[in-house]
Structure formats: structure tokens, C-alpha cells
Amino acid sequence: MGAIACLGIVAALPPLISWRAPAECPPEAEVRAQIVEHAGRDRADGREPYAVVDVSEQDGGYAARIQMRVGGATAAREIRGATCANVADAVSWMIALAWSPRGELAPPPPAVIEPPRPPVTRVPMIDPYASAHVATDVGSLPAADAGLGAALGARRGSIDAELAGTWWPSRFAGANGAGVDVGAIELGVRTCAAIACAGVDVGWLEGHGIGVTDARGASLRIVSLSAGLRWRHALGAAALVIDVGARVPTSRPTFVLDDGTALFRPAPVAARFAIALEFW
User: Fold this and answer.
1) Sorting pLDDT into bands at 50, 70 and 90, what band is 267?
2) End-to-end CA, the chain
3) In the list 61, 88, 89, 141, which could disulfide-bond 26, CB 3.0-4.6 Å?
4) C-alpha closest to that of 161 among 127, 189, 133, 188
5) Are residues 135 and 57 in contact, defined by beta-carbon separation less than 8 angstroms?
6) How confident is the model over 79-136, as pLDDT tens digits?
7) What is the pTM of this model?
8) How far apart are CA 5 and CA 3, in angstroms?
9) Does the structure show a pLDDT above 50 at 12?
């Protein structure tokens, strides 16, 4: 009988509240019953407030945005709580206080409103990747050359760091069939921020005499600084990567014949272009 009487009071009241909340929150009828209980009034006691309440999950808790009208005045409020039940209880107390004459209600229970929680700072993850590339070079070898290579790297946000290796087939330098075939193998480290890249390459120029008496071979080390631009286009689980840049050798070893004739020396600046397919 007590429960029937309580429902009867709620049905006889004006709306009091328009309650929009997630499914796990108390229903509107329960919130209305709380308002009646806290206020200790019924509709015959005079004017009633009316509130539109929207509840949503925020920062691991719940937040209620309230537009309340009392007589001819309106006000906007926001209440936060760790649970939706806390928020519903605080809302019912607010409406009950507006409905009841001053001084008739005991203060609501404390600690139902929580301050906003600070935003969570997310640290970008480190993602490894591998790539295979085809590159062209003008200036490092006796003629324009095409090389093949691969790289291993790691990415954090917009910053890449990688270790790459490239093989360059030999090109001929000389005249009248006498000269030297020069190829190269190089390893390099590179870092890129957004589209700008810089790195250091260590290479070995491999030369073999051609068409000369007592032909011999030579391996000369060369260290170069590199800089350039990188463009990446995602292709699902892979990416197409294009690199354009230049290399500046810190030394320029020279291949010569026994009589002192210079056959080849790397250019002071070499141009590079590479296309890679990247996987992660």
C-alpha cells in the first residue's frame, strides 16, 4: 500500500523534471519520488520548479547539465559525481530545495559533487617498421646509378629513426677500355621529423681495374652527411614512401692508375631519389 500511495503522489505532480540519462542511471520516476521525499510537499503547496536534466558519462564519472525554471526565473547548473546515483540524488536535492520554503529542509548529504578530473595525457606509442627501397644516385659513382636496399626503423608520433643499407652496382670510369669499375655498399642512420630528414652514411667504394696490366682492386671508405624531404602515403597495412635529398661526402677518395692518372673521384654533392614500400 505504501508503494502505491507513493506512485500516486508522483502521478499527481506536475512534471517537475525532464530526465534524460544513460540506461544504468535511476529512471525518471525514481528521481521524481526522491524530489517529493526530500521536499516533503505535494502540488497543493504552491508553485513548483521545473528542470530539464541531461546526464552523460565524463572522465570516468557522470555529469548532469541542468536548466531549471522557478517561477519566472531560469538558471543553468552542472553537477558531477562518481556514480549516476550520486548525481541523481544531488539533482533531486537541488529541485527539492527550490520547491521548499526557506529553512524547512536539512542540508543534503555532503561529498556527492566531485571536481572535474584533469585530462589524461596520452604518450604516443613507439611503432617499429621495415621497408625495402629502390634508389637512384647522381654523383657518388662514375655515372648515374640505381641501387637496392632495406631499412629497419621505429616511429613515435611524427618522428622516425631508422638504419638503412643500400647496394650500388659498379659503374665504369676510364677511356679506351682502360679504367676502373666502381660500386658501393653503404650503411646509414637517419631521423625524420614530419617531412624533414637528416642522417649520416658510411660507405665502401669497391674499385676493380679493367683493361690495365696487373689490374688490382681497392676498397675506399667514404663518410657522407645527408639531408632531404620525405613523403609517406598510407596503403592499409603498408605505406608508399618517397625520399628526395642530397649527400655531401666528408672526404673524396680518388681511384688512380699506377702512373698517377686519376680515374674517378666522387662529386662534392650527390643527389638521391628513393621509393620505398614500408610495412609495420
Assistant:
1) very high
2) 68
3) 88
4) 189
5) no
6) 888 899 998 899 888 888 887 765 444 455 555 556 677 776 666 688 899 999 999 9
7) 0.54
8) 5
9) no
Residues making up the chain, counted from first to last:
280
Q: What's the rounded Cα separation, in Å, for the pair 220 and 222?
A: 7
Cell matching residue 146: 640505381
Residue 35 to residue 29: CA distance in whole angstroms = 10
Rounded to whole angstroms, the Cα distance separating 95 from 16 reads: 8
Is 266 in contact with 136 (CB distance < 8 Å)? no
Checking if the pLDDT of 13 tops 50, the result is no
Amino acid, res. 51: A
Q: Where are the alpha helices (DSSP H) in 74-216?
A: 84-99
Using a CB cutoff of 8 Å and minimum separation of 24, what contacts does 16-19 make? Answer: 16/48, 16/49, 16/50, 16/51, 16/95, 16/99, 17/50, 17/51, 17/52, 17/53, 17/91, 17/95, 18/50, 18/51, 18/52, 18/53, 19/53, 19/55
Q: Residues near 270 by Cβ (< 8 Å), separated by ≥ 6?
A: 137, 138, 139, 140, 224, 246, 247, 248, 249
Task: List residues bridging with 147 in a β-sheet.
Answer: 135
Which grid cell is 254?
680518388
- HSE-CB for 261 with a 13 A CA cutoff: 11
Q: Please give the Cα distance from 205 to 219 (Å, whole number).
A: 5
Measured distance CA(129)–CA(150) in Å, rounded:
11
Radius of gyration of the chain from its Cα atoms, rounded to whole angstroms? 39
Q: Rounded to an integer, what distance in angstroms lies between the CA atom of residue 266 and that of residue 7? A: 94
